[in-house]
């Protein structure tokens, strides 16, 4: 007598990962857009940040975290980290048998839709900017657009310290944006999942004429249509939730982000990422 | 016929490690003080920084890098990272059969010698300050001294960006030092191996009345007497050198530090620290 019901894959979680906690901006966007979905988030806080590391190392770390998400039965893997999206998504798509959605392509599409004068700025980590991933994605859509990129390595530490609204953060942003604004951009891609937390400060520095493109929101829209096209969306009467696991027990910025994003995160699991 | 000569352990290298590149300030101090010694430096750039991570994770990483130094025949292990010194040195001393020298004890001794009013300030990473390691080491020498500590999490990123002499760095330092200066300290321990690179800016903010204690120089002195006491010092006619290995191929800040410290570093080796 067989009593086990076959698992309904639509009820499996959306697996989301980031090098740390910045990807919670993507988790928050997913939760708002898809309240019926269970989201399993892993932050690789034992090895954060990825933004200054090499392609090979970022690829290795990303594949390892992807494996942890598959072990949680993830029906889709969302790479909620621009650096990992820029450097590791192609290889993850080769290796994994579930859909893999990064944040670069949705951000690039939104920027192409937003620009009127054809001049797009991109800010991100050193690794993301060096990869040229946004340029490639934007030029694949429209080779005539001009893209100006600037790495902003100090922004993530400032945001992790909770200095969203602080004169020091304002000065750092003003310095990073100056060369982009001198190029007369009308659209600015926030090419790092931490940056939406400092959206107001970035907006003040960029001025009213520049449209900010938040890859978190656009990534959530891409996940929604991907789930629908694969008939993997959770039934609308299902009650979703957000589970968070970290690879190191450092909760400081997690609670900062929880407050800033108005997320509810309960107990945090730990996951081990490597042999001792 | 036996032609192999027995290895002279005095010619084995001094093994030095840091979470990243900041420990090069210790390597530079060792090189100046002990020009006959071979120094083998490993920077764990694949997992930098350690300063915001948990004790368990920092201990695990430190033991792993210690093993890599033993594989290089290190005659002594110098933990040139305050966070690892604060959290991992006791366990490393249990596990390893060579002397292990951290940076906390030498810095604490120098601070106790330097203070006149008995009020010592300590700046470091969040993990170092939370560990209370400097307080414990200072109070073990003189329980009457008062110690005031302040974590400075933004200083390492600013220094890694090469902003040693920059108004933004000055403002960040002024903010961090304000509560310590309000306590009328006359001695300030630079409790992170990055900080000597911003020594001038820290000195400007602290004022002339405050003596800065650089754990790098004091650590080098401690290594010298430890080697002499174990008859492990290299013969003075031996020509020393500095070899550097990193766990991730990110050389940006390495070259910044090389210039600032006037070090000569040639090719950089890569070492793998974990299973893929």
Task: Give a concise summary.
The structure is a homodimer of 276-residue chains. By secondary structure, chain A is α/β, with parallel strands linked by helices.
List the helices and strands and how they pair.
The structure is a homodimer of 276-residue chains.
Chain A: E1 14-18, H1 24-33, E2 38-43, H2 55-71, E3 76-79, H3 82-95, E4 100-101, H4 104-114, E5 119-124, H5 126-131, H6 133-141, E6 146-151, H7 155-160, H8 167-182, E7 187-191, H9 199-206, E8 211-214, H10 215-229, E9 241-246, H11 252-261, E10 268-270
Parallel strand pairs in A: 1-2, 1-3, 2-9, 3-4, 5-6, 5-7, 7-8, 9-10
Helix pairs in contact in A: 1-10, 2-3, 4-6, 4-10, 8-9
Radius of gyration of chain A: 18 Å
CATH class group of the largest domain in chain A: Alpha Beta
Order of strands, main sheet of chain A, comes to: 4-3-1-2-9-10
- Tally of helical segments of chain A: 11
Q: How many strands, what sense, and barrel or not for the largest sheet of chain A?
A: 6 strands, parallel
Class based on secondary structure composition and strand pairing of chain A: alpha/beta
What is the subunit organization of this protein? homodimer
Strand content of chain A: 15-25%
From the 3D structure, determine the CATH topology of the largest domain in chain A: Rossmann fold
Calculate the terminal CA-CA distance of chain A, rounded to whole Å.
45 Å
């Amino acid at each position: 007598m067989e009593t086990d019901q076959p698992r309904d894959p639509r009820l499996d979680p959306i697996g989301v990962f980031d090098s740390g906690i910045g990807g919670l901006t993507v988790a928050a966007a997913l939760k708002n857009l898809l309240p019926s979905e269970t989201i399993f988030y892993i932050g690789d806080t034992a090895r954060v940040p990825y933004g200054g590391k090499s392609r090979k190392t970022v690829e290795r770390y990303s594949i390892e975290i992807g494996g942890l998400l598959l072990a949680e039965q993830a029906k889709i893997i969302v790479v909620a980290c621009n650096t990992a999206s820029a450097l590791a998504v192609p290889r993850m798509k080769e290796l994994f048998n579930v859909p893999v959605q990064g944040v670069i392509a949705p951000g690039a599409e939104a920027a192409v839709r937003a620009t009127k004068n054809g001049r797009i700025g991109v800010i991100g980590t050193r690794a993301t900017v060096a990869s040229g991933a946004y340029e490639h994605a934007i030029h694949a859509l429209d080779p005539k657009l001009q893209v100006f990129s600037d790495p902003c390595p100090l922004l993530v530490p400032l945001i992790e310290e909770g200095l969203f609204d602080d004169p020091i953060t304002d000065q750092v942003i003003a310095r990073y944006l100056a060369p982009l604004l001198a190029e007369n951009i009308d659209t600015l891609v926030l090419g790092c999942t931490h940056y939406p937390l400092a959206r107001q400060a970035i907006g003040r520095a960029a001025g009213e004429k520049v449209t900010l493109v938040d890859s978190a929101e656009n990534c959530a829209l891409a996940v929604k249509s991907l789930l629908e096209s694969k008939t993997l969306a959770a039934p609308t009467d299902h009650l979703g939730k957000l589970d968070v696991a970290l690879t190191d027990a450092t909760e400081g910025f997690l609670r900062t982000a929880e407050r800033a994003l108005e997320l509810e995160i309960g107990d945090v699991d730990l996951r081990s990422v490597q042999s001792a």
